[in-house]
Amino acid sequence: MRKAIVSIGTGPQQGLLRMASRSFRPYAARHGYDLHLHAEPLVAERPVPWSKVELLRRLNESYDVLVWLDADLVVVDGRRDILDDLPEDRLFGLVEHRTADGQMPNSGVLVIRCGDEAERFLANVWAQEDLITHQWWENAAVCRLLGYELDPVGPGEPTALLRDRVTFLDPRWNSIPSDPARAPFIRHFPGYAPRTRSVLMAASLVEMTARRTAAAR
């Protein structure tokens, strides 16, 4: 099976991606993933977060599975392959958060099965042109396609895509400070200034190293 981990970190987030890659690389080696880590945007006509959609579309034909990981997260416990938690009949998986802002999916960690259906999904995300400058960019488009309301954010009428082709992953796969999970696989730090993120990520890298050292004993 051809699998790849994908991420982009541009501008101030280049340093964050370098830190994140210290956890991506051992995880990829352990579970057989290629790495596609980019430090430059792929499209000039939209805000940088939309380059995520373009990159996934470019890689879709070359792989069986793609895992998107935001640049501001750390895989602190890499023993489990995220693909093991995506049922065979599901197109993609992500975590749904419940925060003070509301209840919404977070595509900062996303596992997707490649193919024609994935291309249609990504094309539909890209087509939400009224959301190009939305505060949640492409994540707002994903939420809308799943049937979520955006203003205020929260569940609306579930779409067929949500009912039949999406699985909500264990929150351990995308633990954020405003909705923390116990014993997370991934610690994610969205919404902070780059300096704060780097401090939090550095602490998580120490946690990752400690886990690996303990496991090796």
UniProtKB/TrEMBL annotation:
GO molecular function: glycosyltransferase activity
Alphabetical list of SUPFAM superfamilies matching this protein: Nucleotide-diphospho-sugar transferases
Keyword vocabulary terms for this entry: Glycosyltransferase, Transferase
Any one GO biological process: protein N-linked glycosylation
Keyword DNA damage found: no
Example of a GO cellular component annotation carried by this entry: Golgi membrane
UniProt name for this protein: Unannotated protein
